[in-house]
Input
Amino acid sequence: MVLDDAGYPDVPIYAPNQAGNFFKDLGIVGNDLLRSAWQGMVAIDMLEKALLQLRPYETQPGAAEEAFWRGVEGVADAITNDGTISTALTQSVSEFKQVPIERTRQRPRIGLVGEFYIRSNSFSNQNLISKIEALGGEVWTAPVNEWHRSTNGSCTVTSAGACAPSSTASGGCGSRI
Output
C-alpha cells in the first residue's frame, strides 16, 4: 500500500524464505542478479575485514573508514554499471595502503561470534565493535557470506531432495556461485 500511495502500483514485492525453495523463489530475478549479489557480498566482506584489521592501528582517525566507504562505492559502481569487482577491489587495496598506521603495540584480537545479523549490524549489537576498539581491541568477525554457506548447508541436510541441482542458482545447495 505504501508503494501504491507513493505512485508505484506496479512494483512487485518478493519475500523469499530460507526453506528448500529459496533459490527457486529467487530464480524469477535471474542468475545474473544472484551472481552479482554473491560477488558483491564477498567483496564487501573483504573490505570490512581490511577495515577491522586497520582501524585499531590507524594514526589518522577516520582514514580507514573513509577508505572502506570509497571501496563500498567502487564495488557498488562496478555492480551497477557492469564493471569489474576485482578492479574495484584493486583500487581499494591502494586506498587501504595509504591509511597511516602504527603497529608497535599488538592489540588483543577478540572474535565476535553469534547470529550473523546481530554481529553484523551495529545498531543491533549496540556498537560492540566500536566499543571493543575503543578499549584497545582488534575485532575479528565471521564474514556475512558465512550465512549463505550455513543456509546452504542446512538446506542440504534438512531438505534432502528439495535442493536438487536444477532448483538452485549455484547448481545445488553448495556455495559454488
User: Anything to note?
Assistant: Helices lie at 2-5, 22-26, 31-54, 63-80, 85-97, 116-120, 128-134, 145-159. The two ends are 35 Å apart (CA to CA).
